[in-house]
Design goal:
CATH topology: Helix Hairpins
Pfam family, one: TLV_coat
Number of strands: 0
Distance between the termini: 32 Å
Largest sheet: none
CATH class: Mainly Alpha
Number of helices: 3
Shape: rod-shaped
Strand content: under 5%
InterPro entries: TLV/ENV_coat_polyprotein
């Protein structure tokens, strides 16, 4: 039961981190778009700082992390088992 509780907490924490990661990724892209717009006359962020390779690409692993968290939770679940008594012989 302790393993299941710890696993459920770990799974919940991973889901929160995945959600936060996806939100941060969106925020970074939105800010980059705004900066490129403001610096459009100078060629955007890349043009302003004379960067030839200036591509912003942030992989979104949020969904994969959420799926792994669900799998961890599923694997750790131990159904309640009923004691059926001793069915063997003592000697």
């Amino acid at each position: 039961a302790v393993v299941e509780v710890v696993t459920n907490h770990t799974s919940g924490a991973l889901k929160m981190l995945a959600r936060q990661y996806s939100q941060m990724r969106a925020f970074v892209y939105q800010n980059r778009i705004a900066l490129d717009y403001l610096l459009a006359e100078e060629g955007g962020v890349c043009g302003r700082f004379n960067k030839l390779e200036c591509c912003v690409e942030i992989d979104d692993h949020g969904e994969a992390i959420t799926e792994l968290a669900e799998e961890i939770k599923r694997v750790a679940h131990v159904p309640v088992q009923k004691y059926k008594g001793y069915q063997g012989t003592a000697f």
